[in-house]
Amino acid sequence: MDIFIPIGIGFLTNLFVFVISKAFKQTTKRSLLICLFSFLVVLITAFIIGSWLGMGIGIISLGMLVFVIIAGLSTALSIIKNVGD
After folding, report:
1. What's the pLDDT at 85?
2. What pTM does this model have?
């Protein structure tokens, strides 16, 4: 159960990045690209740091990836739904 805490921290961090990017009047697609880029930066940082600290940061980046996947799927499904109407 302890692994869900850093995953949740990563999810909330990327949610915060998404909301901030939307506040700056970015499109949803561009906001998702910003979130994907932030995930990649954190993942690469985890590999550079290494050791136990890098492993913890890697788990946080996993939560960020989960957010990108969920937000991307919901965006794609809403686009498909709008095309069908």
Report:
1. 62
2. 0.85
Largest CA distance in the chain: 52
Residues of the chain with pLDDT under 50: none
- What total of structural domains would you count in the chain? 1
For 65-71, the CB contacts below 8 A with 24+ separation are: 65/10, 65/39, 66/7, 66/10, 66/11, 67/10, 67/11, 67/14, 67/15, 67/18, 67/35, 68/14, 68/32, 68/35, 68/36, 68/39, 71/18, 71/32, 71/35
Give me the pLDDT at residue 13, please.
95
**Is 29 within a domain?**
yes
Would 21 be classed as within a structural domain? yes
